[in-house]
Specification:
alpha+beta, 13 strands
Length: 201
Amino acid sequence: EQRCNVPDDWVGKLVTIRGYGGFIRNNTESGKIVTDSTHGHGPVVLLIEGRSDGKVAFRLDGTNLYLTQHLYGDSASAEISKILFQVPKLLPEMVPGIIDYAVDQGSTNKDFEGAGFDYRSMTAEPGPPNALQEFTLEQVRFGVFGIKSRFGKYWRSQHWDGLVSQSSHLLGDETWSFTNVTKAVKQESKKKSMTSREIEW
């Protein structure tokens, strides 16, 4: 395994990602992006694709599915409202109702952790990547990053129930370690190819 450090070095790489709750994987039964520290479930392999303005998207290797976050918080509400108000045939008085339906407000001061969290899990949705599937890497220390959405929210390892959710700050639960598995994947592919040739022979 080979580890990289500079964010730009990750573009085009196949990686596994690990947080406090374990490696990220895709729960195909629930449709949720989760973390798992057990050996019974292998981590999902992700291809990091470069996007505009230095952003990246994470595609599940071998699929057209991208890691996707939910809309929540004041920043998302403000940006979506700005877009909707520019739609010619949409009455201005309809915009608040659409925002209330599409954008969750997240946790409040009455919740056990306070305001600023969204406890819903990320999902894997079809591309091409949109605003909910594009992120910025923020280096925390060697080999460890925060992953921020265009709305200023960070991936969070909601480790007590094994989900990948969102937070408005970058602390311990919001840090993720990337491991480049490109070499390992190529070797495994080469082994399968050699086995196939041997069988055919």
